Predict the structure.
Amino acid sequence: MLHRKVIMAIADGVGDRPHPLLDNKTPLEYARTPNLDRLASKGMTGMMNLISPGIPVGTDMGHLILFGYQPDQYPGRGPIEALGIGMDVQPGDIVLRCNFATVDENGIVLDRRAQRIREKTDEIAGAIHGMELEDGVEVHFKPATEHRAVLILRGNGLSDKVSDSDPKAPNDGKPYHQIEPLDGSAEAGHTASLLNRFLQKAHILLSSHPVNEQRIANGKLPANFILTRGAGQMAHLKPIVEDLNITGSCIAGESTVLGVAQLAGFKTLTDPAMTGNLDTDIALKARLAIQEIYEKDMVYVHLKAPDLMGHDNKPVEKAKAIELFDEMVGLIEQQLPDNVYLALAADHSTPCEVGEHTGDPVPVLIYGPSIRRDRILQYNELDCAHGGLGHLTGNEFVRTLHGLMGYVKKQGN
Amino acid sequence: MLHRKVIMAIADGVGDRPHPLLDNKTPLEYARTPNLDRLASKGMTGMMNLISPGIPVGTDMGHLILFGYQPDQYPGRGPIEALGIGMDVQPGDIVLRCNFATVDENGIVLDRRAQRIREKTDEIAGAIHGMELEDGVEVHFKPATEHRAVLILRGNGLSDKVSDSDPKAPNDGKPYHQIEPLDGSAEAGHTASLLNRFLQKAHILLSSHPVNEQRIANGKLPANFILTRGAGQMAHLKPIVEDLNITGSCIAGESTVLGVAQLAGFKTLTDPAMTGNLDTDIALKARLAIQEIYEKDMVYVHLKAPDLMGHDNKPVEKAKAIELFDEMVGLIEQQLPDNVYLALAADHSTPCEVGEHTGDPVPVLIYGPSIRRDRILQYNELDCAHGGLGHLTGNEFVRTLHGLMGYVKKQGN
């Protein structure tokens, strides 16, 4: 079998709708994108529904599919976030998303986010990480962005069927919730009681923590409590790279994308210069993509900015973010080795007028050796709707790439 | 989330094939349809297979899908027909379709339809409705169009696994069938014996009914028997409006469509002027559609005539029926509020040359705010086959609309 390689450039949330501020064009139509359009004229295009027409997906689900998983293999946001911040997550681990929070002496939640604490959360987390719970259950705890953190319980006889301690409602003078088992199993009861003890022990540790004493001295609320939510279990997902017997790298600034890449068995490359915004270093991303494709079979390179501008209803800035994407793709194409396909994709649409992910399909493109060029000359939602790839699900698009690479098993004989 | 509304105009059975009487054009191509074509040029189009390519569907199944159900949720024709004529159908009810018929003193069926009786069937039905059966099983009975009626048995310990008393064959000198249980359950045996007793009691009641005595005096056959067929059980289907948390209305003349609308939780509006034929009052339909969309999230407005002309192999008249549809759609578009999508669809194809429903896909169209306009300029089977929506299943098309409305739940986070 002839084996080839793929670089997939992902413009997060790039799909949109015609907008009055852009002469009733979509940001992709409006933006100046000579590189994307040249690839369209040389490649084949189509439209992709990540799951099925009309169904919106989150960034985690969208990337899970782009990396080759089925939608029903979604392991929950907790495990993906844990992987994304570099935690070692193992099958069977119970993973919870957490907030640093402030409670008073009666357990009343004064602030669900401890005034959106950003400083020294690593020091506070350090006091909790490694805490001992009974039966040899290990506590792994790591801060994420701002007031967020991830808690992992590792041990035998645990369950993710437990309720949240986070009351979620705005600070309304009510206490945090006791954690309850969500089914009748001994494991759920055991895990709930372990977690309630964890909350108590963490509260005692944090109440006297030097960072918090300093915060109080400075007139700030102490981060003296850990609110937990969304317990999930790390699924026994086989890394895609093992499934296909390939190797891969992912270049991204966003922890969710990096988390999915870890799950899939991809090497992850990130850098503070990958800001996720309009000032992200696209030259660095393009350089790393080319560097990695010499070593690996698949390279994913991700740009977050279009999605952010969609969420903020900024169509002109979204067009600018797309011009960044165009530039990055152009840099990659200039150095693309002969045996490598260049694919363009997105994880979902984030139309500016909606400000949320929607189920509108996204344009996709494949360019590379011996490609069946179609009649489409521009990369956008309207032209690619008539493209030669037709309308594909996310799984079908990714399998098309794996097929072109020569790694899909023949059915029958 | 941004919420919008949808008016869906359904041209029953509109899909067709090129016909020699129409210069080898399809009725949709041949008809003068300035409104449909203007919408095509401003909107996005595609082709829809209600279930899957090649599979014909009935009007009930087609509309069940257009209202948002999955094909495997089909509850049977009986419950839909019962709902369509305004009966209160409850989960667990056993519903049978019936004919008023004529039998002689030996039970020989003289006429399966009692000479297609149309007059005073409500009086005859009144004698049967409310009949008492043992074990507190209630009898609900209501006439439908012409010689048709619906019987509902309501009570405990009933089953729909029973055979038909209707021999269905043309009047061939044979007696009506005894009703038999179709499985070995006690419920089926009990229901079969209840139904056989119902047939006897109804026969006695009807034989001496004044309407029948008058018919005999006038030289007509008496409607002295109830033939039953197609026992079905009302499924525990959740109304679509509850599932999505929306409201809706349906404007139609046909009881099957109204029945599906009831099932889906839609308000139904009908009028004797909605004849189902070429003389139907399209101005009334358009006016009601606009009136209802101010109150509701979704409005379906249905036109039966194209299907009838297809069944009758009348291509020229089918083109006329399509021009009526065009006129109705034009009236709706003139008053369409800004936040409303206008969708065009059909429940199936009824090609004139076949005279039956076929599995040929039907053209669909979506026009409205910020739509991704495609390159198609005419609404018909041949142009829309190249449309920007691609080829969709019925479920995908409807979910696309629910997605544009902002009511589809995000998968992942």
